[in-house]
Design brief:
Shape: globular
CATH superfamily: Spore Coat Polysaccharide Biosynthesis Protein SpsA, Chain A
CATH architecture: Alpha-Beta Complex
Strand order of the largest sheet: 5-4-1-6-10-7-11
Structural class: alpha/beta
Radius of gyration: 21 Å
Oligomer: single chain
Largest sheet: 7 strands, mixed
């Protein structure tokens, strides 16, 4: 008797959940002075926004990038930033809003419904690393939400309105929030929609997810992951860039 076996069917591996990075870059940078928005100021001979996008483009865990810029700069960004530098992961360049929170909300509306994780990174933090991106995404997949942050190392003083110290604050539980920040898509979309409906404003996206009632994990960042907001930050940035180039 001959036994006929069915051909073996290899299991098709499940595609990893999609990660979409949002880059809010519509700010005017008033603290910088001048007429050029800070995200377009030069660092190492290139616009700040290019430095940030280059790392996101190189990050294996990032599948798509959505860029939110001033409406007047959309064409410039499409041609001179995205196309010129071959940022192939940038799938959309959208008009940002009056404030950062509005820009993120506009970009969230363009996130594909099958996306699993939304990563949000400030355009003016050009020294993010591949390690930070990978670790914050991994933590968000595990916990639902995670941010890069830095433990407070300086002594913290609580000061009265008259300029006198009221008390020294225990710095042990205090961390300085940075970006990137990563979230389950449904959490961050709901958080921003609810906040918009109720007029809740926040300085970072994690606050809105916390306000929704979710816990947020912390991944330790780096002192080099600075946010360029003032002229002196560009000087520091040039020094960091020179150090990285020298170190290979």
């Amino acid at each position: 008797m001959t036994t006929t076996r069915s051909p073996r069917v290899e299991a098709v591996p499940r595609q990893a959940p999609q990660v979409v990075a949002l880059v809010p870059a519509a700010g005017r940078g008033l603290r910088m002075g001048g007429s050029v928005p800070k995200q377009f100021l030069s660092l190492g001979g290139e616009p700040l926004i290019v430095q940030s996008l280059r790392i996101l483009q190189a990050a294996p865990v990032v599948d798509q990038i959505i860029l939110a810029v001033p409406s007047a700069d959309i064409e410039y960004c499409e041609n001179e930033i995205v196309s010129r530098h071959r940022f192939t992961k940038v799938t959309k360049v959208v008009a940002g809003g009056a404030e950062r929170q509005d820009s993120v909300l506009h970009a969230l509306a363009q996130v594909p419904p099958d996306a699993d994780i939304v990563l949000i990174h400030d355009a003016v933090r050009p020294f993010v690393t591949l390690r930070m991106i990978a670790e914050v995404v991994a933590a968000a997949r595990k916990e639902g939400a995670a941010i890069i942050a830095l433990p407070m190392r300086d002594t913290v003083k609580q000061v009265r309105t008259n300029g006198m110290i009221e008390r020294t604050v225990d710095r042990t539980p205090l961390w300085l929030a940075q970006t990137p920040q990563a979230f389950r898509r449904d959490w961050i979309v709901t958080a921003h929609r609810n906040a918009h409906a109720e007029g809740v404003r926040a300085t970072d996206d994690a606050f809105l997810v916390e306000w929704l009632g979710h816990s947020v994990a912390v991944v330790e960042g780096s002192g080099e992951n600075i946010k360029v907001t003032r002229p002196e930050d560009l000087v520091i940035g040039e020094a960091i860039l020179a150090s990285r180039i020298k170190g290979g």
